[in-house]
Design goal:
single chain, 270 residues, Rossmann fold, 7-stranded mixed beta sheet, 6 helices, 17 strands, 26% helix
């Protein structure tokens, strides 16, 4: 059950329009739809191609760019993004592939505009956002569950957008989370970035700016391989600049935590 109408999504500062070419969009996407008046930043045209059915999702996957467009060729989908007019054409065999494809191109479009899609849990405390950053298995979902149980709002459990608005660092939730029903698209001022690992005892160590920048770069969900030297250098430079700005404006640290919401006391005492 779904809709065949154009669908509009807001991914933080990024406005997207999805045209399903007559195919019904699943309710999981319809649930995320918003109504907005601002111009569309990324126009997405989706077509169904049964030839991709049953193929492995990503392996092998090739990314190519001629400087004017970026193309992904994978066994389960093909996609081409025209960088000049911000139009994205996707061929898929199953709708569950759309979210993964969209995540790649949303991260690319965001990065070109000075925003990062960070591999992180985004949590709200006292109206401010905190990012808990790390690779799969680091404990992002665990921290989200601990915080949710104590009344904190979860922006997202796996992917959060960060950037600046009016000179202030802002974080937005996304539906790219591993548990989209527990995510929120709202934004809030960013107060801290914490690189996490699970341990028997909870403790927090402040990180110097250069270490914070390195960690943020490492955990940004962006693939530059295949984009070509000039485009990769352009985007890499913007990402570096955003990471440096974040490290100057918010508290950054390495957080070891156990399965207890007591880690918030460490964050509060900073």
């Amino acid at each position: 059950m779904g809709t065949s109408q154009d669908l509009r999504l807001e991914l933080g500062p990024l406005s997207c329009s999805i045209r399903p070419a007559g195919l019904p969009i699943p309710e999981t996407f319809v649930h995320e739809a918003q109504s907005f008046d601002r111009p569309v930043d990324l126009s997405i045209h989706v077509t169904h191609d049964p030839a991709f059915r049953g193929a492995p999702l990503f392996e092998p996957m090739r990314v190519n760019s001629d400087g004017q467009s970026v193309t992904i060729v994978a066994p389960a989908f093909h996609a081409t993004h025209n960088l000049a007019n911000s139009k994205l054409a996707i061929q898929i065999s199953a709708w569950e592939h759309l979210k993964l494809t969209l995540r790649f191109f949303a991260a690319l479009t965001l990065a070109r505009r000075g925003y990062l899609l960070v591999h992180s849990a985004g949590l709200l405390r006292n109206g401010r956002a905190y990012l808990f950053i790390g690779p799969s298995g680091a404990g992002k979902t665990t921290l989200s569950e601990l915080s949710d149980a104590t009344g904190h709002e979860v922006l997202g459990t796996d992917a959060t957008i960060v950037g600046f608005r009016g000179g202030h660092p802002i974080a937005w939730g996304t539906f790219f989370s591993s548990e989209p029903d527990r995510s929120s698209p709202r934004g809030a001022e960013l107060a801290g970035c914490y690189f996490i690992k699970q341990a028997a005892r909870a403790h927090l160590v402040a990180l110097p700016a250069h270490a914070s920048v390195s960690q943020l770069q490492r955990n940004t969900l962006l693939m530059l391989d295949g984009l070509g030297r000039d485009l990769a250098a352009e985007i890499g430079g913007v990402v570096l600049d955003t990471c440096m700005r974040i490290s100057r404006h918010v508290a950054c640290g390495e957080l070891s935590f156990n399965r207890s919401p007591s880690f918030w006391r460490l964050v509060d005492n900073g």
